[in-house]
Design goal:
Layout (H helix, E strand, L loop, with lengths): L1 H39 L4 E3 L8 E3 L6 H16 L6 H9 L7 H18 L2 E12 L4 E11 L5 E15 L2 E11 L7 H13 L1
Antiparallel strand pairs: 1-2, 3-4, 4-5, 5-6
Helix pairs in contact: 3-4
């Protein structure tokens, strides 16, 4: 009787040990797969960029609309508010955000504007009233009131629009294209919009 009890208890312990071993191996395999998945997963960084009240997210190669709108608004405001005193620093400030492939052309245009402001002793002021991200053409649109003030208290007011193409590389937002013009933003005609969407999809 005691031998049977001993045998059953011994067999039960062996069975329990085997089950625990199998469970431990299964947990190790699950943890291994989880670790690989976490390493391979594209990291999402939650940031509060300039002029953004809430949170926005940016990954290694992209960002959400809120982040791009905030960044585009900051760049448009920086480029649209310049005095003869701050003009020499405009190109350097913008250069930090310009994508390498657009650097030469864009910095040349910004530098030319800065030299004109400094040489003619004029000031420009921009008050944004509308900002949004257009997912089709992948650009941030910023429109608002724009003033040009001369040295003799002359003043000219107009509506100005900035179209900013923004890309993300290694969590860094870069200005890849810039277009400015007088007047508010208007929806492009169908063919023109299709061409812009096709161009944006190549980037």
């Amino acid at each position: 009787m005691k031998l049977r009890l001993f045998t059953s208890t011994w067999n039960g312990l062996h069975l329990q040990n085997h089950l625990l071993l199998a469970f431990s191996v299964l947990m190790i395999i699950c943890n291994l797969f989880l670790g690989i998945a976490l390493i391979a997963k594209d990291k999402t960084v939650v940031l509060v960029p300039p002029r953004l009240i809430g949170e926005a997210s940016v990954t290694a190669n992209d960002a959400d609309a809120a982040f791009k709108e905030s960044f585009g608004l900051s760049l448009a405001t920086m480029m649209g508010n310049v005095t003869p005193t701050t003009a020499p620093f405009l190109a350097d400030n913008v250069a930090r955000y310009v994508a390498p492939e657009a650097h030469r052309e864009m910095i040349a245009a910004v530098s030319e504007q800065a030299e004109q402001i400094k040489g003619e002793q004029i000031s420009i002021q921009f008050a944004p009233k509308e900002v949004f991200y257009h997912p089709g053409i992948k650009k941030v649109i910023v429109s608002g009131d724009y003033w040009i003030r001369g040295a003799r208290n002359s003043e000219q007011k107009m509506v100005r629009t900035y179209e900013l193409g923004l890309t993300v590389r290694n969590y860094s937002v870069q200005l890849s294209s810039l277009k400015t013009y007088e007047g508010p933003w208007t929806q492009p005609k169908e063919k023109e919009l299709e061409a812009q969407v096709a161009a944006a999809s190549k980037n």
